[in-house]
Amino acid sequence: MRYVLYAFLALFMVTSALAQEAGRDSVATAHEDSLAAAQFEAELGYRTGDIELPHGMATIHVPEGFRYIDQKGAQLLLTESWGNPKEASDDVIGMLIPPVSPLDQDGWGIVITFDESGYVDDKDASKIDYDKMLKEMQKNADAYNKEREKQGFDPVTIVGWAEPPHYDAATHKLYWAKELAFGDEEHTLNYCIRALGRRGVLELNAVAHMGQLDEIHATTPAVLSSIEFNQGHRYADFIKGKDKIAEIGLAGLIVGVAAKAGFFKALLVALVALKKVIIVGLVALIAFLKRFFGRKNAKVSGRTA
To answer: Which pLDDT tens digit goes with each residue over 215-250?
Structure first.
């Protein structure tokens, strides 16, 4: 009987030793991961204060609690950490990062790009029927999804406005949010801010999931007020007859048919908060909607293309 007891004691000691070793390994791994994460974040090059964007076109007064990372840091985060294809970040100028670490599961960020498509005339802003626009977008997304399904891709559904469009005619700033669904995946938030300037539009796209809508909405006023075009690049600096006029109005910005197709590139990074890479048939989608909205844009925005 004693031998059986000794055997059990020996087994217990071995098991305990293995458990302790596994625990030490787990702690060591967690420590190594923490050090790696800290090192990675250090490479992002966080900055605060006033940031002048490339070519002196605009200044971002980084909101309290946020950090700014430049093009190199933004591309590193989008591709190396969030797993996006390189082409999804080619036109990125920088990013705004909230207090939470972008490496956390609930980490999110605001991607900044510039669409140099020209001066966007906002004279018809008050005439846009956003409910009608949404219905047309949903209808045509359904038509496009038939082609996606033939190619073996999940459908992309525009569920609705997560935040209806708002335009401030005094500051020439626009923001809205769409709720998107990719197949049966968790619904995705596409939160957009646009600042109109003399030669184009500064685009800010929040990359997050639907559960973060309230958090992002709460920061929107601070982010909106942080964007300022510099003298010579402001909306009021437009010179009629000399400067280029964009082929689309405010409605076109919301639909997403811009020269650089900022919204469609945002689709590529729309699920990065879930740490997943999605391929949405970018080129085909742009071509399809450009053909459709090339015919519809004048009717929706009240402007001729």
So the answer is: 999 999 999 999 999 999 999 999 999 999 999 899
Q: Are 189 and 158 in contact (CB under 8 A)?
A: no
How far apart are alpha carbons 237 and 228 in whole angstroms? 13
**Contact call for residues 114 and 200 (beta carbons, < 8 A):** yes
Distance of CA 256 to the CA centre of its chain: 13
Question: pLDDT tens for residues 104-137?
Answer: 888 899 999 999 999 999 998 999 999 999 998 8
Please give the Cα distance from 252 to 194 (Å, whole number).
12
State residue 134 phi and psi, 5-degree precision: -60, -45
Virtual torsion, Cα 227, 230, 235, 238, nearest 10 deg: -160
- Lookup: tokens for 167: 């335009």
- Looking at the structure, tell me whether residues 100 and 217 fall in a common domain: yes
Q: Are 113 and 260 in contact (CB under 8 A)?
A: yes
Residue pair 246/119 in contact (Cβ under 8 Å)? The answer is: yes
130 shares a domain with 36:
no
Look up residue 104 and give its DSSP letter: S
Q: Is 126 left (phi over 0), alpha (psi -120 to 50) or beta?
A: alpha
Task: State whether 175 and 248 are in the same domain.
Answer: yes
126's tokens: 């008050």
* Reported pTM: 0.74
Q: Give the neighbor-by-neighbor strand order of the sheet with 109-115.
A: 67-70, 94-97, 109-115, 201-209, 188-196, 173-182, 156-168
Sequence-distant (≥ 6) Cβ neighbours of residue 27 within 8 angstroms: none
For residue 8, give its domain range.
1-44
